Amino acid sequence: MLDIKLIRENPAFVKERLAHKQFKQIEFVDEISVLDTERRRLQQELDTVLNQSNLAAKAIGGLMKEGKKEEAEAKKAEVGVMKEKEKELKEKLTAVEQQQSDIAIQLPNLPAAAVPAGNSPEQNEVVREGGIKPTLPADAVPHWDLIKKFDLIDFETGAKITGSGFPLYKGKGAKLQRALSSYFLDFNTAAGYTEYIPPYMVNADSAYGTGQIPDKEGQMYFMPADELYMIPTAEVPVTNIYRDVVLKESDLPIKMTAFSQCFRREAGSFGANVRGLNRVHQFEKVEIIQIAHPDKSHQLLDEMVAHVERLVQSLELPYRILRLCGGDMGFASAITYDFEVWSAAQQRWLEVSSVSNFESFQANRMKCRFKSEGGKTQVVHTLNGSSLALPRIVAALLENNQAGQGIHLPKVLHSYFGSPFID
RNA sequence: GGUGAGGUGGAUGAGUGGCUGAAAUCAACGGUUUGCUAAACCGUCGUACGGGUAAUAGCCUGUACCGAGGGUUCGAAUCCCUCCCUCACCGCCA
């Protein structure tokens, strides 16, 4: 949610930034300004009437005590007239407020100054690359073939039990998931992140707080009987820990990490890009989240990017870091860095992490604030990133490390997996 | 799922339909006293949205808010209805 004061005071800037994000309905900015003016006018009018009837009600109380019955009755009649006016103004005000907020929640976050221009993934900026792309043997195959060969995941039975895109991990495939998530969590907690296990379903308030509603509502599984959403990422429940909370300045930054299953409908996806583990409806991910002081958030974002980079490096995977252009960023983000690992057999980059600073956008919606030393209350900044999403990491690990009889695992995983290779 | 109790400011906890935006205590903050700490004493101490003035500090002022939403009334924290949540016991259950 954008700050109404910013829209009021600097509409030109807001419009320019929205255009940078390739947002089409720039006219929303002017519509909000008009509604805001009207809203304030109505509130002023209503407050005046309410004030009069409050004063009259008090006067009646006094008159009753003094036994001046007739004067009291006369006053009552007066207030009766005001009630009509009050009702009318209240209805108008509520309607205008509703209209204003309906539009306001559709406005995405403004991109930060460093966000490159552009409207398609090709215009994302490569910040840096690392690792070495392996040269695979002539008979190298994509991960879905390796998965079959080593019997790691049974997609067909997963489809029978639930539907396509719900993998059934099995044997060493299941153990590898456990090894990776344990390793990621240990890596994060060693860096000062507190570990959480959050609920996997959330209510509408939480989904709204992090910006999934209304923007991504169709992407979430919804349980109508209980009005709950399956989480698309641990970001939603974990960030919402601090919804409607006023923190102390000394509490910041708050660093949290959580493993969760993630559920995404991915409606409309099809084709070769969704084969195997490239795109699934249920997957495992470890997330890192920070609640930060506004002055520190961009520095902390850099630290989070560096943190994820070390994690990817430790897996010995070739990777690159992208700074997303305005048109490719998420609804709630002010700036986003994507991590991609090289999938050698598919000859393509796979996104495994997205690290973003949401600045005050989520905090405004969630009413997450802190009291500064001076006693002033202001909203925090929120940040999060994957550290890491498992399926595509598995895909890259399998493909890049295939060597005839087995698949070699990076050193950091040996103790977690209980073996240096899969065979 | 059933029954009972309850939801009041950072915390504990009063509150008879008007004098209660809300007692009291604690915590917190500022100050006095003090060699330092403690104690004592004095003061401050909710949020949101408006309006005025002013330097985006501050000050003055209006409205709303005592779980949420409705209703009764000239007037509701207080009465009525619906819903939500918490706790306890029972039932069911990994």
What does the model show?
The protein is α+β, with helices and mostly antiparallel strands and 423 residues long. It has helices at residues 4-9, 11-20, 27-66, 69-104, 143-149, 155-161, 172-190, 204-209, 235-239, 297-314, 361-366, 390-400, 411-417; strands spanning 125-130, 194-196, 201-202, 222-223, 228-230, 245-248, 254-263, 282-292, 319-323, 335-343, 348-359, 368-371, 377-379, 381-389, 402-403, 406-408, 421-422. An eight-stranded mixed beta sheet has the order 1-9-10-11-14-8-7-2. It is elongated, with a radius of gyration of 27 Å. The chain starts with a helix and ends with a strand. 37% of the residues are buried. It binds one RNA strand of 94 nucleotides through residues 39-40, 43-44, 46-48, 50-51, 53-54, 56-62, 64-65, 72-73, 75-80, 83, 246, 375, 377.
What is the total tally of β strands? 17
Number of helices: 13
Please state the overall shape, judged from the principal axes of the Cα atoms.
elongated
Percent strand equals: 15-25%
The helix/strand order is HHHHEHHHEEHEEHEEEHEEEHEEEHEEHE
Distance between termini? 51 Å
List low-confidence stretches: none
Q: Mind telling me the C-alpha Rg?
A: 27 Å
Q: Which strand order do you get reading across the main beta sheet?
A: 1-9-10-11-14-8-7-2
Mean pLDDT: 90
Q: Give the biggest sheet.
A: 8 strands, mixed
What structural category arises from helix and sheet content?
A: alpha+beta
Roughly what percent helix?
A: 40-55%
